[in-house]
Amino acid sequence: MTLKMDADALNAFLESDFPQVAGQYLVETVDETTLTARLKVEQTHLRPGGTVSGPAMFALADLAIYCAILSRIGPVALAVTTNASIDFMRKPAAGRDLIAQCRVLKLGRVLAVAEALIFSDGGAEPVARCSMTYSIPPK
């Protein structure tokens, strides 16, 4: 499979179409099987108890899966999440960025299914697992 968007193109798309998240997220790598994205954890992402909040982890998974799908279909801004499930498995480290590793499991004409594992940067065990289905608008 030939990718339609590489990491640089995905980051540029996020900067232009989603300026509200500019600087918080970075697509680090993308290839035919995996996309890796980073959340630059800041104070605003933390919750009491010194851990990264669930909504921050969910947002990273959603953004990373969205970008994994766009890497295959191109810049379709109106592709939207239609289903999501997330399992929070471990407390992420507050002082480290979060890394999402995504795989697209099925890419159809109108639906895409993907999953993401989220890790504290440098950690070996995932802190969360997320699966999502996206609706792809007609051309």
Automatic annotation (TrEMBL):
Organism annotation: Paracoccus seriniphilus
InterPro entries: ACOT13, HotDog_dom_sf, PAAI_dom, Thioestr_dom
Keywords annotated in UniProt: Hydrolase
Similarity annotation: Belongs to the thioesterase PaaI family.
Protein name from the UniProt record: Uncharacterized domain 1-containing protein
Thioesterase domain location: 49-125
One term of GO molecular function: fatty acyl-CoA hydrolase activity
Superkingdom of source: Bacteria
